[in-house]
């Protein structure tokens, strides 16, 4: 009789051990995949906002002396608020005083400066970049 009880106890212990390993694996994988799903949802949200973000440079002013100051009028014709965080003149990043937020259907001046002078009468490339990575470039004669 003791022989039969030990086989039953061993079988029950094996079932409990295998079940606990299975439950632990299920809980781990559920947490892992829900984190992956959340990350994919965030990426999709950013992609949608990137597509909705549309802007262009309406006008530019370049003032050059010992240093160069650039002002660009940026119009937001998209469906989401944009934040202009970077501005470039001929590939050189300009120093912005602060990021500029532009609501849909509105425009704002974005001002930047660089210590490098630009020769008068030259054609320059002015590029503005949003916080989501969209850019618009315009050519201007100084």
Structure description:
The structure is a single chain. The protein has two domains: 1-52; 54-141, Immunoglobulins (Immunoglobulin-like, Sandwich). The chain is built from one helix and nine strands; from the N terminus they run αβββββββββ. The protein has one helix spanning 2-52; strands spanning 55-64, 68-76, 82-89, 92-93, 95-96, 100-102, 107-114, 123-130, 135-141. The strands form two sheets. Strands 3, 4, 6, 8 and 9 form a five-stranded antiparallel sheet that branches. It has a four-stranded antiparallel sheet with strand order 1-2-7-5, with no helix packed on it. The radius of gyration is 30 Å and the shape is rod-shaped.
Spatial extent as radius of gyration: 30 Å
Topology order in helix (H) and strand (E) letters: HEEEEEEEEE
Number of strands: 9
Question: Under CATH, the topology of the largest domain is which?
Answer: Immunoglobulin-like
Q: Sheet bearing the most strands, described? A: 5 strands, antiparallel
Let me know the average pLDDT: 86
- The number of helical elements comes to 1
Estimate nothing, just give the exact number of structural domains. 2
Structural class: alpha+beta
What's the end-to-end separation, in Å?
102 Å
What is the CATH C-level name of the largest domain?
A: Mainly Beta
CATH superfamily of the largest domain: Immunoglobulins
At CATH level 2, the architecture of the largest domain is Sandwich
């Amino acid at each position: 009789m003791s022989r039969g009880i030990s086989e039953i106890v061993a079988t029950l212990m094996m079932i409990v051990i295998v079940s606990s390993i299975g439950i632990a694996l299920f809980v781990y994988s559920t947490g892992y995949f829900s984190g992956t799903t959340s990350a994919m949802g965030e990426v999709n949200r950013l992609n949608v906002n990137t597509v909705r973000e549309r802007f262009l440079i309406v006008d530019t002013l370049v003032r050059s002396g010992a240093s160069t100051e650039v002002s660009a009028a940026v119009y937001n014709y998209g469906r989401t608020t944009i934040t202009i965080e970077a501005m470039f003149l001929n590939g050189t990043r300009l120093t912005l005083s602060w990021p500029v937020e532009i609501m849909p259907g509105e425009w704002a001046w974005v001002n930047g400066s660089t210590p490098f002078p630009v020769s008068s009468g030259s054609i320059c490339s002015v590029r503005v970049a949003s916080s989501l990575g969209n850019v618009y470039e315009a050519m201007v004669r100084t």
